[in-house]
């Protein structure tokens, strides 16, 4: 199964807020016709309302290739039962919701429903996402291939060995863009605090993070070596890194605490 199945049989997007829209933008940019997509969302954005050909809050096809579930975990119990008739059939359910386990979907839709749990991130909007996936017993190789085809249209895809890995994945790559955007904000604020005009500070911070990310992805050296390449012995970077890399109150213990808090919340949402 591949993107042609989605073109022919259609895809239902249940919930189309920030994450659903980020992925939809990537798929449309990649050539998926809007006419193949049914969006079900009570308050569709102006962008959705302006998409020509999109089936917006229209009657759903009886057996779409994929239902992509992108409502908030807290809304799941209200939203998902409306699609129960599509359970236990050929339709693949792909959920991007944090925390909600495959067992919960099987309870709501039937345990013969092919289900893939996925954790994407918002750079999908520009085709640069990364998504981790894991399927249930009813999802065969064909379903996993379909989920991978769909999600690799908006970035990289990794397959997990166990659903237990999903909380940590969520805390790293699902939430990670927010950490990175905050790094840009914090760098810009530090620039401003040291006399740079706000626009200049933001331009420098944004271009630096974007450039460093691109270099980290494309260079032969690992990130540690790339860091060393910036750090002249006894120079300026070294002075900053002695603060940032402090084992007690530097970046590593801070990020570890942040990731632990994210994992705790992910598990609460799934309970
Ligand atoms: N944002 C991100 O970076 C990521 C989010 N996710 C997951 O994606 C999911 C969506 O998150 P996000 O896009 O940020 O949230 P949003 O609130 O932006 O989007 C959810 C959308 O679902 C709509 N909705 C609410 N109830 C229903 C319903 N009964 N039927 C159909 N649609 C409904 C909401 O409408 P309304 O606003 O009117 O309530 C909203 O438009 C979550 O489960 C989250 O865990 C996963 C990875 C990354
Ligand atoms: O904040 C959240 O709950 C979702 C999950 C990953 C990113 N956003």
Automatic annotation (TrEMBL):
Question: Keyword annotations for this protein?
Answer: Amino-acid biosynthesis, Cytoplasm, NADP, Oxidoreductase, Proline biosynthesis
Catalyzed reaction equations: L-proline + NADP(+) = (S)-1-pyrroline-5-carboxylate + NADPH + 2 H(+); L-proline + NAD(+) = (S)-1-pyrroline-5-carboxylate + NADH + 2 H(+)
| Involved pathway(s) | Amino-acid biosynthesis; L-proline biosynthesis; L-proline from L-glutamate 5-semialdehyde: step 1/1
Q: Where is the Pyrroline-5-carboxylate reductase dimerisation domain?
A: 163-269
Keyword Oxidoreductase in the entry? The reply is yes
The record, for InterPro entries, names:
6-PGluconate_DH-like_C_sf, NAD(P)-bd_dom_sf, P5C_Rdtase_cat_N, P5CR_dimer, Pyrroline-COOH_reductase
Please provide one cellular component term from the Gene Ontology annotations of this protein. Answer: cytoplasm
Which residues are noted in the entry as NADP(+)-binding?
14-19, 70-73
Q: What class of enzyme is it?
A: oxidoreductase
Q: Where found in the cell?
A: Cytoplasm
Domain of life, per lineage: Bacteria
* Chief subcellular location: cytoplasm
E.C. number: 1.5.1.2
State whether keyword Oxidoreductase applies: yes
MF terms from GO for this chain are: pyrroline-5-carboxylate reductase activity
Q: Domain Pyrroline-5-carboxylate reductase catalytic N-terminal: where?
A: 13-99
Which terms does the UniProt entry file under GO BP? Answer: L-proline biosynthetic process
Residue positions annotated to bind NADPH are 57
Q: What does this protein do?
A: Catalyzes the reduction of 1-pyrroline-5-carboxylate (PCA) to L-proline.
Would you identify the family this protein belongs to, as annotated? Belongs to the pyrroline-5-carboxylate reductase family.
User: NCBIfam families per the record?
Assistant: proC
The molecule here is called: Pyrroline-5-carboxylate reductase
Identify the gene encoding this protein. Answer: proC
């Amino acid at each position: 199964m591949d993107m042609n199945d989605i073109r022919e049989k259609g895809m239902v997007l249940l919930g189309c807020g920030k994450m659903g829209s980020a992925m939809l933008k990537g798929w449309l940019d990649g050539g998926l016709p809007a006419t193949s997509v049914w969006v079900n969302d009570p308050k569709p954005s102006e962008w959705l309302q302006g998409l020509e050909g999109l089936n917006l809050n229209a009657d759903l096809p009886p057996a779409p290739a994929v239902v992509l579930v992108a409502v908030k975990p807290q809304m799941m119990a209200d939203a998902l039962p409306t699609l129960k008739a599509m359970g236990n059939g050929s339709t693949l359910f792909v959920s991007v919701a944090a925390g909600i386990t495959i067992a919960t979907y099987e309870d709501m839709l039937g345990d013969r429903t092919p289900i893939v749990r996925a954790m994407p991130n918002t750079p999908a909007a520009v085709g640069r996402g990364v998504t981790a996936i894991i399927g249930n017993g009813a999802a065969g190789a064909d379903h996993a291939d379909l989920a991978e085809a769909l999600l690799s249209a908006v970035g990289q895809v990794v397959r997990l060995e166990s659903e237990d890995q999903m909380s940590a994945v969520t805390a790293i790559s699902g939430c990670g863009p927010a950490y990175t955007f905050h790094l840009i904000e914090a760098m810009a604020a530090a620039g401003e605090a040291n006399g740079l005009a706000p626009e200049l500070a933001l331009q420098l911070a944004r271009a630096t993070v974007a450039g460093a990310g691109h270099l980290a992805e494309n260079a032969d050296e690992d990130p540690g070596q790339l860091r060393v390449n910036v750090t002249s012995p006894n120079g300026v970077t070294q002075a900053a890194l002695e603060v940032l890399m402090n084992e007690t109150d530097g970046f590593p213990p801070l990020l570890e605490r942040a990731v632990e808090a994210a994992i705790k919340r992910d598990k609460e949402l799934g309970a």
